[in-house]
Specification:
This protein has 10 helices and 3 strands. The chain is mainly alpha-helical and about 325 residues long. It starts with 5 loop residues before the first helix and ends with a strand.
Amino acid sequence: MTSEGGGAIAFPVMTLALKISPAVARDFSLMIQSCGMSAAAFTIAFMRVTLEMHSLVLCSLGGAAGCIFGLHVVDPNVSAAGKKMSFVSIWFAFASVLIFLNRYHKRPTFKTIQDFNWWKGLCLFAAGFLGGIFTSFAGSGLDICSFSILTLLFRISEKVATPTSVILMAGNTLVGFYWRGVMIHGISQDAWEYLFVCLPIVVFGAPIGSVLGSHFHRLVLAALVIIIDIIALVSGFAIVRPLTPALIGSSIAFIVGFFGIFMGLTAAGQRLLASREEKNPGVTDTVQCTSVATINICGVTEKPQSYVSMVETDGKHNETTTRL
């Protein structure tokens, strides 16, 4: 239902609360999301929900490369406690920026990246690569990395970024699952047993979440992401032992560093918005829809090659559609 898949819950709960090794938790997260998020992706495609197509292609390519790189290079060189705390610290930093950004309820949001060019494509690929690395040791990461760059830098609505990130994460977990199981032969028996227990639930829960999420306002989805990230960080500091000064320092460094990165993305997004408004006065909130007979999240059927204006007033989306 949110941009964070089941792995964002499974990994901290299994490692922090249930004391399961990060390797097993990571493998389980990959396996269960490859089933649940694939089912959710099918539901999203069946409903013909609006997606950001540039990120689907480029973040997928970057995520696959990052996941494979991370499994061979990053994961073996990060400690178990480091994996736990880095995961929760980075996403707490993102939640902090999301709180700041959503104080402005009337900010314009889009359904697709405006004036797409090569450097925007490179940003998407880089975000995918970084998210793939996080997936390699935590079982989740591409979803929130793609979500963050879409919402903070390119000002895509959470109502579009969320289903897009779900499909991206479904593909990334399939890559990770295949690489761990077929190429590395590293999946433990415990991870398989956890999968068999949870599989009947997740294949129904994930699609239901996709349907429910399509009817929530974007601020509700953002609030859920923020709550999950805050709970994960508090749990990490409360449960991880030994909580050494080095681990505390690295966690704080991750929070401060990634907070700076996310704030930088937010500031860059504001500059892009201002630049576009200068070039096209009065049409900052205009989005060109290229999908055929899609149904957007707000329930308005879009016609091919139409322009849709999306503006928020008092926390609500107002849209008008004009045919060419």
